[in-house]
DNA sequence: ATCATTGGATAGCGTCACTATCCATGATTG
DNA sequence: CAATCATGGATAGTGACGCTATCCAATGAT
């Protein structure tokens, strides 16, 4: 198919597709003449993945490129690719906030909860640093946030991860598994957050209805 | 305290504080002369909340203004304020993606999971629409995502919400409760997502170590 | 009296994710 | 075969966003 058809079937403007091609998010089409190229179903699928990562998952173009490069890199084994890919994923927190005096306490809390869950602590993990930033912000505002308070969150997260890893293993092909890991990691984030919001709304109305006036 | 001291104690540049004042994220100080104003601890606290919402929670300046305006609006009862405040919170998904043909299926899935959880379905809720967008993206990519698959996520979300609402109720003053609800809703998002990432990493290494090679 | 600081207003900056325009080549059609 | 149209590639521009830098008159500090 030509660029125009790829655009039509994906719902993405041709100018945007060209942009993704330039940025290396999408492999070039098979050149069929000096001024035309042919795209296939694989391109369509990749394009949909890119859009989902960027629009739904909210990750940046640069991050998407890193992730997809790692997924595609067939020069290393799958474990490394997986590691590189998820490490390139959006730290949910952009800033390092290294100038934070409360960071030490936050780091202690982060380690405590992971140890209590029996997890290996890897301080270099971007997720670890994001966790520290978030805890630090909570503490700075005076909200209680210690190992005990985070434990239930960690247990729930553990159960989610177990479930998701099992899902990924159901996919046969290695590249498909990698893609699935990335897609599920990123795309289930909004699912989880939305459900949490809905649950909060439900809980709030329920408590009101059952006569626990919010004062 | 003067602007300079507010800046020093919060770690936020004076130019940025002026920007927040202009944007209505921070109430004006008590004018002490035609060219000077006095700020108090409440300003400092509010400034920290604003920074946390924007930097850690990743919400936009405009959204933060809406949320805080609702929290401050003493002309209506607390329940309405709470509703307005959380409704103004960041849809984790920006785009509506109304041009989506698979949206109908996604909407069905979203309703199914909520009904199976015994929740009231409120389609106008931004979180509902965000959920539909996310499900729609997953389905478009061919990943399984039906009511049964989402049920465990919903149950976990329900437990989180219960826990968080209880936390909020521990705060005495109404305004404090509102602030706490907003802060906890927004600031626990990165906590939850980070823990999920860490749990995934832990699960992945664990499965590797226990001899389930990822092919 | 002097001089730095303050708050307020205005305009500018850097990033990001596109998007619009232009162009030469090649495909399509009567 | 000529006229027209579409395509892919390159380049520059756009609009939103979150600040940030500059200027200014009035004031406080010394």
UniProtKB/TrEMBL annotation, chains A, B:
InterPro entries: DNA-bd_dom_put_sf (IPR009061), MerR-type_HTH_dom (IPR000551), MerR_fam (IPR047057)
Hydrolase recorded as keyword: no
Limits of the HTH merR-type domain: 1-70
Record's keyword terms, sorted: DNA-binding
Span of the signal peptide: none
Keyword DNA-binding: yes
Pfam family, one: MerR_1
Superkingdom of this protein's organism: Bacteria
Stated name of the protein: MerR family transcriptional regulator
Species of origin: Streptomyces chisholmiae
